[in-house]
Each structure stands twice: as C-alpha cells, then as structure tokens.
Amino acid sequence: MLQGLVHYGIHFIAPLGIVFLFYRKEWFKTYAIFLSTFLIDLDHLLATPLFDPNRCSIDFHPLHTYVAIGIYICLLIPSKTRLIGIGLCIHILADSCDCLFM
Questions:
Q1: Quick count: other Cβ atoms within 10 Å of Cβ 20?
Q2: Whether residue 49 has a cis bond before it, omega within 30° of 0
Q3: Which range of residues forms the domain containing residue 61?
Q4: CA 18 to CA 24: how far, in whole Å?
C-alpha cells in the first residue's frame, strides 16, 4: 500500500506542486503536459505479462531504458521541451521508487 501511495503521489502530486510553484499562470496547460507524459507507459503493452507487480520498469521497457532516461534529461535544457522533460523525469522518478520497494 505504501508503494502505491509513493508511486501515485509522485505521479500526480509532485507535478501539481511544481505547477503551483513555478507555472501558476498556466497551471492547467502545464499540468496537462505533465500528465500527458504518462503515455510513455504505452511501452508496457509490449511486455508479457502486461502487468507484473514485481517487475522494475527501469531498463526493462523500451521507453524506460537508461538511454531514454538520458534523452529525457536532455529535454530539460531547451525551454521549448522543458515541460515534457520535467514530466518524463518525474515519471521515471516514480517508477524508480517502485524498484526501491522491491
């Protein structure tokens, strides 16, 4: 239960905190961009079984590899891709916490 609270807290509450701290004027658009980065979880559809609670997503799914994570970090640098990069890095942080609980 604690794992789920931490995971989904990071997924939903951390982006909301960032939105209200740094992007308050365009909070809805920014939060929507952050939540849209959940789409990287579509790579879970390639796994068999589709869901395994004892599997660490990091370096298992194609969009959760270390190379992909490096690209997400690089997205933080240009201002045009920064919001997507923040959302993706928060997503990876949430998934990394799952691995720590294993």
A1: 12
A2: yes
A3: 2-100
A4: 9
Instruction: Tell me the residue type at 91.
Output: H
Q: Alpha-carbon distance 6 to 95, whole Å?
A: 10
| Chain segment 48-66, per-residue pLDDT in tens | 988 887 889 999 999 999 9
Q: Check: CB of residue 76 under 8 Å from CB of residue 86.
A: yes
Which residues in 8-101 belong to E strands, given as ranges?
none
Contact 89, 76 (CB under 8 A): yes
* pTM of the predicted model as reported, rounded to 2 decimal places: 0.92
Residue carrying the six token digits 């990287």: 40
* Total domains present in the chain: 1
Any idea what the Cα angle at residue 12 is, between residues 78 and 38, rounded to 5°?
60
